[in-house]
Amino acid sequence: MKVVVASQNPVKVNATLEAFRAQFPADDIELVSASVPSGVSDQPMSDEETRQGAVVRAENALEAQADADFGVGLEGGICELHGIAYTFAWMVVISREGQISASRSMLLPLPEKVMQLVRSGMELGHAIDEIFGTENIKHKGGAFGLLTSDRMTRQSVYVDTLFCALLPFRSPAFRDA
């Protein structure tokens, strides 16, 4: 099975491989990464924009690798609900046959000092690096890792979310009776 993930970020690549291995343990999985556009802003600021970015990335990834069985788009974003800012991610999987499945991660509240920088135009990862003195946090534990003291990490949340997005391709519960 050949899977193309729309990212070269090691967190996203490793999460994709781990989720596919968990859902398809008997299969030989070849993972390819592709740098493709999302069609949305660098820092999506709504649930819908973030989901759209994941869809477009998955479509573009599948198009970039003509022999791939699946295209995967992972897009992190921010939304504000009831006066609180949260980060989250959408995972979209598209099969070569055109079947689409998606799942969204849990919401992680963000500190206001981080959001001040994000609202001024900075990406979340860069804002966290600046406020907390980290370096390239989005290629490591991410906001999830930093704010939960590594109880959860960006990769672990992405693995679980992508695992759920893969259910319709794998679980008998989704097959026609």
Number of strands: 6
H/I helix tally: 6
> Structural class given helices, strands, pairing?
alpha/beta
Contiguous runs where pLDDT drops below 50 for at least 5 residues: none
Order of helices and strands: EHEHEEEEHHHH
Kindly provide the radius of gyration, computed on alpha-carbon positions and rounded to a whole number of angstroms: 16 Å
**Considering DSSP H and I runs of 4 or more, what fraction of the residues is helical?**
40-55%
Strand content: 15-25%
Backbone shape: globular
Overall pLDDT confidence: 96
Distance between the termini: 25 Å
Q: Mind summarizing the main beta sheet?
A: 6 strands, mixed
Sum up the structure in keywords.
globular, alpha/beta, 22% strand, 6 strands, 41% helix, six-stranded mixed sheet, 177 residues
Q: Could you walk me through the main structural features you see in this protein, from its secondary elements to its overall organization?
A:
The protein has 177 residues and is an alpha/beta fold. Helix content is 41%, strand content 22%. It has six helices and six strands, in the order E-H-E-H-E-E-E-E-H-H-H-H. It has helices spanning 10-23, 47-64, 112-119, 124-132, 142-147, 154-170, and strands at residues 2-5, 30-33, 70-81, 84-95, 100-104, 108-109. Strands 1, 2, 3, 4, 5 and 6 form a six-stranded mixed β-sheet that branches. Helix 1 (10-23) packs parallel to helix 6 and helix 3 packs across helix 4. The longest helix has 18 residues, at 47-64. The model has no long low-confidence stretch (mean pLDDT 96).
